[in-house]
From TrEMBL:
It is found in: Golgi apparatus membrane. InterPro entries: Glyco_trans_31 (IPR002659). It comes from Crotalus adamanteus. The keyword Transmembrane helix applies. This is Hexosyltransferase. The keyword Transferase applies. GO terms for biological process: lipid metabolic process; poly-N-acetyllactosamine biosynthetic process; protein O-linked glycosylation. GO terms for molecular function: protein N-acetylglucosaminyltransferase activity. Pathway: Protein modification; protein glycosylation.
Length: 477
């Protein structure tokens, strides 16, 4: 007697052989290609349904001592004493469904509409025992898959728009130093005597334009720092105002003119902001075309904006004039003796290690007048040491360190103090010398001009008069 069909179980099918024994063919996890059962021989069991005759339940699902039931190709056949309800109670709903699908595959019968499974959500994977498994690998329903694709496209488009808007804002709107500068910012500095804290919210509240301004050159100079290799470059950077054309003309006729002197190549450069007076701006443009020694930015000239001139100049030197060995920086009402200046740099040991000038030690903070500073911006009574802005010298190494510090500090509203904080952050030592006469001279004598690096607060007429006397070889020394 042979059976044409097999009874499905959780792992395979049971067959009745002609000799009356039952055989088990394994399926599921050990199936071969295309879902076919593994051809390896299946174990045989006696017809009684108990292994070893000890009354243990057989593989068909009958209880001990009770006749078994099995499946045929035509449907379920029930044997007496083995009710199908008991066999069904041993399986869960999910196991029954798996058995029916397995039977259809093995018998080669046409598959009917499969039982619906819970459709997993995109991105979660299928579930076994309530736990998420691997990725879906395309198991999302077409509608959900389409929704996933559209969601991804929408997210990518939104990201691109945000990046474009961010770039556009950087081009049109001045950005804060914290946004465009180094990721490291300095919150406090000490000079050994005082600790200086930076309340950035106070800086932004009192002087937002100083923090938000983005340096924009309107008139760049014409190759001031370019030239053949030779003596080291000494740049004469002179702070001026668009309305001061006559002063600049006087300085160009005297000490602020290109020259080679004392082993250095001297080049003047006038640093300007902007103004609402178009006539002055037109004169500045003419000067630039004629002399090529104007560097102008688009911020409006004001007392507090002198700090912007300091910061933007450091940025310009870093980007366009790193070949300058030294920079002398001063005002346009200053007399400079170029011979004494170059002699000072030659005879000073390790001159490139310092900032040179008239160093003010822990000056008192003013709370009223032109130089007033709010308490919440700067609560101390003393400033750090600084080189007076009337005239001082910086080296190439110092300029690079000062520029890096300018990326990490807020802009203080007084340019001398702003430079003091930059110097402290850059860890550059300062060297005081009395030859920097930033407070003028007690007695206006030619000998003082002959011995000084610079003298501040001199009229244009006196500058031209002194220069002629110093240039005249007949003038007694």
């Amino acid at each position: 007697m042979s059976i044409a069909a097999a009874a499905p179980t959780e792992k395979g099918a049971v067959r009745l052989s002609p000799d009356g024994s039952l055989s088990l063919s394994l399926g599921g996890g050990s199936s071969g290609p295309a879902g076919r059962p593994d051809p390896s021989p299946a174990p045989s069991l006696p017809r009684g349904g108990r292994e070893g005759g000890r009354g243990r339940p057989g593989l068909v699902g009958c209880q001990p001592g009770a006749p078994r039931s099995f499946l045929s190709g035509e449907g379920r056949k029930k044997r007496p004493g083995c009710p199908t309800e008991e066999a069904a109670s041993l399986r869960s709903g999910a196991q029954k469904a798996e058995g029916r699908r397995g039977r259809r595959r093995r018998l080669g019968a046409p598959t009917s509409q499969p039982e619906e499974e819970p459709t997993p959500r995109c991105g979660t994977g299928s579930s076994e025992g309530g736990k998420p498994t691997a990725n879906l690998e395309g198991r999302c329903q077409p509608g959900l898959r389409r929704a996933c694709q559209l969601g991804g496209l929408a997210l990518g488009s939104l990201t691109a728009v945000l990046l474009l808007l961010s770039w556009h804002r950087e081009q049109l709107v001045p950005s804060s130093p914290a946004a465009t500068l180094s990721s490291r910012t300095i919150s406090a500095l000490t000079d050994g005597s005082f600790t200086f804290h930076f309340n950035r919210s106070a800086y932004e509240a009192h002087f937002p334009h100083l923090q938000l301004y983005r340096c924009q050159e309107v008139i760049p100079p014409d190759d001031v720092c370019q030239g053949p290799s030779g003596p080291p470059l000494l740049l004469l950077a002179i702070k001026s105002h668009p309305a001061s054309s006559s002063r600049r003309a006087t300085l160009r006729r005297t000490w602020a003119r290109p020259a080679e002197l004392g082993g250095f190549r001297l080049r003047p450069l006038f640093l300007l902001g902007s103004t609402s007076n178009q006539k002055h701006l037109e004169l500045v443009a003419q000067e630039s075309r004629m002399f090529g020694d104007i560097l102008r930015w688009d911020f409006v000239e004001s007392h507090h904006n002198l700090s912007l001139k300091e910061r933007c100049f450091l940025r310009w030197v870093h980007g366009h004039c790193q070949q300058a060995a030294f920079v002398f920086k001063g005002d346009d009402d200053l007399f400079v003796n170029p011979k004494v200046l170059t002699d000072y740099l030659r005879r000073t040991p390790n001159a490139s290690h310092f900032i040179h000038g008239n160093i003010q030690a822990h000056s008192t903070v003013m709370r009223r007048g032109k130089y007033a500073v709010p308490w919440d911006l700067y609560p101390l009574d003393r400033y750090p040491n600084f080189a007076s802005g009337g005239g001082f010298i910086m080296s190439r190494v110092g300029l690079a360190a000062l520029y890096r510090a300018s990326l990490e500090l807020p802009v203080f509203p007084l340019d001398d103090i702003y430079l003091a904080f930059l110097t402290l952050a850059a860890k550059i030592p300062q060297r005081h010398d009395g030859a920097f006469r930033v407070w003028g001279i007690p007695k206006d004598e030619l000998s003082a001009y002959r011995r000084s690096v610079c003298i501040h607060g001199v009229s244009m007429e006196r500058i031209e008069e002194v220069w002629k006397q110093l240039e005249d070889p007949r003038t007694p020394s």
